[in-house]
Amino acid sequence: MLPKASAGPSPHAEAAKALIGKFRALREEILYFTTDLTDSRALNGGAVPESFVEAVSAAVQQSTRLEQAGGADATMLRDAWAYTVAYEPVVQELLAMAKFLSHSIRVQRNAAGLSALDVYTLAKRLSKRQDGAELRPFVADMRVKLGKKGRPRKANSDPAPATAPVLPAPPAKE
Length: 174
Hints:
With about 170 residues, the protein is mostly helical. It has 5 helices and no strands.
């Protein structure tokens, strides 16, 4: 059975709202955080191995001409790579958190649904009793909202099952 909920506003709504606020506040703490997703396809061009970035960093560090022409210094390149290495586990943790939260929501939805089906079954049974007339409108409303239409009508007669015609077997090849 589910825990009893108060008749007032849901404590879960306030807790969820506060958690969303915390997530949004975290954005401010993450250096280089961006919400601009317009160029996401263009970002695939920079997918290179770490060894390549380090080799370029070393070359830029040794050549002022490369640094000026490329518009990037070795410190910036190494810092950008260090950022990716440091924050990739954070992404994995957030994805895991989202997966587990989604599962937790399904568990609670299932618990509520099963409890509601138990109450519906009990209400149907009680509404059939002589002293259960007050439950009949509730049962009818629940039935509609559940998508049940009532008992299906029986056909007057059972039609004979359709059988496929039997074809003769093809002659055997020798």
